[in-house]
Amino acid sequence: MSDKTFYITTPIYYPSGNPHIGHCYTTVACDSMARYRRMQGYDVKFLTGTDEHGLKIEQKAAEKGVTPKEYVDEIVGTFKNLWKYMNVSYDHFIRTTDDYHVESVQKIFKELYDKGYIYKGEYSGKYCTPCESFWTDSQLDENGCCPECHREVTFAKEEAYFFKMSPFADRIEKLLTETDYLQPKTRAVELVNNFIKPGLEDLCVSRTTFKWGIPVTFDEGHVVYVWIDALSNYITALGYKNNRPDEFSKYWPADIHMVAKDIMRFHAIIWPAMLMALELPLPKHLAVHGWITFNGEKMSKSLGNVVDPFILGERYGCDAIRYHILREMALGSDSSFSNEIMINRINSDLANGFGNLVSRTVAMAEKYFGGTLPEEREEAEIDTEFKNEVLKTVEDVDTAMSGTRIKNALEIIFKTVDRANKYIDENEPWKLGKNEDKKARLASVLYNLLDAVRIISTLLSPFMPSTMPKVWEQIGASADDVKYEKLSEFGVLPVNVTVHKGEILFPRIDVEKEIEALNSIIKENMEKAQANLSEKSSEKIELAPEIAIDDFAKVEIRVAKVLSCEKVKKSKKLLCLQLDDGMDGRQVVSGIAQYYKPEDLIGRKVQLIANLKPAKLCGIESNGMICAADLADGGCQVIFVDDSIPVGAKIR
Ligand code: ME8
Fold first, then answer.
1. Where are the domains positioned within the chain?
2. Is the dihedral of CA 318, 319, 325, 331 positive or negative?
3. Is 180 helix (H, G, I), strand (E, B) or coil?
4. CA–CA separation, 417 and 361 (whole Å)
5. CATH 1.10.730.10 fits 338-488, yes or no
6. Rounded to whole angstroms, what are the CA distances from 508 to 9, 246, 345, 463?
7. HSE of 626 in the Cβ direction (CA atoms, 13 Å)?
8. CATH superfamily of 549-651
9. Relative to the CA of 233, which ligand 1 atom is closest?
């Protein structure tokens, strides 16, 4: 085994619902990184798993009449099946209900307590009894009620343990601003300004209001709350403070933790603080990617717009799906998933670009030489330039992968695919084939193409691991020919290589037909989700007392357009929107930050309650309210207005 190690992790996912394309992105991205480093000879450890404790799981299991463990077991099975289906090569799957993890978390909690970093205090705030949840003032809804169920809250206190964050503030600030821990680093400023500068708040790390968690060993009734349990997985899986084989000394510190921006703060601030308190080395990099949205909208199971990765894989093959999501998402920014873009990309890059390069090259070797190239060669000046460009790809891809820029690595490889297709056009082998004197030249051209395909396909194998062995079979490459160390040279395939024409790698997709088919699947999903929602909500609907038409006429609802929008500092729930209301414009504060990002709203038209008395939320003036529907799963959806309706129009 190599002494170069590479340890990469995905977040451990909540098994509260089936996995979707968003979970697929992080997992497939880590898988590609892991496969890439394995190919380079690293001794790789790739960890994924599930985060199984907490109130939500306890409640969902109760709703279904099963135990929490029974509930999660089923969903964890779906996660594992999907990873198998997507050809994800994890080395270990951790479940936070595994005994070894429970044992380590209890020891970690005790050690932090013994060192004085965890202390007992009181958790106080506004409490919603039906939801069994505490809320801070800034989290409450517009009416000062529970943001989940919108019922009244009462002031309450609960005994809880807290983790002291302040001793680590300076070191964490340096970690974020002076090192390349955070990728992309542009996010460091936001973290420092929002969380460190205002003073790091201590973190509540135990609860007594639910049972489905790891018990605190020295205080009955307390269970470890969320992050100490979840984040520790990255070291407990390596045998830290448990009986699993010791891999901690070999693989820790992790090379990359990959997460989406929703949990960046926990990995950028809380996890380093925990490790500092435990006196352990810090991970080398935290790679943060954005959200995959669906046609620009938030992906939501309750809306039914989530694309089931199993369905997509069945239709287009798992490698095409892997390629599409990896090629679309750049580290740091969001990416909108669209069936149309996916199909067009599969057609252009995979069917017409790479697939065509392989099939044309192999077909010509068969047509002109019966499948086996002759030994006579005639090289031309143009070949050197082509070969150098292909070889340069290897270096460039490595630079991109070292910065976890997977999209960029694929862009580089596909530029070379285009270059190789251009090399065919430049040399016009079909003309060379007609002329007996040009057979040696033709053999050189085809050989150079086959060897370029060897390099390209080897570079593509971490991203599309199921397809590339088929390519190697077609171009007559042996297992030895496609080793990473052979990528730095041209001329690796045998001189008289024999090709084998095979199946079409990526069949061209009929765009219109497929879009129609996918839309009807989505429509069906949405109808099902809608029926599910009405079924759930019909149990609860209690109408307010009747009002007369005059009462309704008092409410002035107008169409308004969102001109700009930003998060309200110090509030997790509030967004501050500047609206064009067809009058002088106005500012509205809305409690939808958990469901929408500012960029989801900017430019969209909404329904505004225009004559609502101004109010101050978190000290910011709000002049009106925008209409949104409460969803049965606790989510919320803004009622957007068709763009053709003019701003200021009255809604009745
Ligand atoms: O947060 N786009 O689990 P989780 C991109 N258990 N990535 C997405 C996504 C989307 N639409 N949806 C989910 C948790 N993800 C905790 C983590 S780690 C110690 C504990 C991916 O099931 C993305 O990687 O909510 C995100 O960070 C993760 O799923 C959140 O998964």
1. 338-488, 549-651
2. positive
3. coil
4. 12
5. yes
6. 35, 49, 11, 20
7. 31
8. Nucleic acid-binding proteins (2.40.50.140)
9. 19
Would residue 346 be called left, alpha or beta, if left means φ above 0 and alpha means ψ between -120 and 50 degrees? alpha
Q: What is the pTM of this model?
A: 0.82
Average pLDDT rounded to a whole number, residues 231-255: 97
If you average pLDDT over residues 407-426, what whole number do you get? 98
Please name the residue whose Cα sits nearest to atom 10 of ligand 1.
Answer: 22
- Residues facing 8 on adjacent strands: 46, 256
Closest CA to 13 of 31, 1, 25: 25
Distance of CA 132 from the midpoint of ligand 1 (Å): 24
Given this model, what pLDDT does residue 124 score? 81
Mean pLDDT of 187-214: 90
How close is the Cα of 341 to the center of ligand 1, in Å?
A: 23
Model confidence band, residue 258 (pLDDT cutoffs 50, 70, 90): very high
- State the CB neighbour count (10 A cutoff) for residue 490: 20
The bridge status of strand 206-207 relative to strand 256-260 is unpaired
- Ligand 1 centroid to Cα of residue 174, in Å, is 26
Between CA 364 and CA 642 the distance in angstroms is 54
Instruction: Give pLDDT tens digits for 376-413.
Output: 999 999 999 999 999 999 999 999 999 999 999 999 99
pLDDT digits (tens, 9 = 90+) for 311-352: 888 899 999 999 999 999 887 788 888 888 999 999 999 999
> What is the rounded distance in angstroms from the CA atom of residue 294 to the CA atom of residue 335?
9
Q: Find residue 93's DSSP bridge partners.
A: 48
The DSSP secondary-structure symbol of 503 reads -
Say if ligand 1 is within 6 A of residue 292 CB.
yes
Q: Is 489 helix (H, G, I), strand (E, B) or coil?
A: coil
Q: Is the Cβ atom of 11 under 6 angstroms away from ligand 1? A: yes
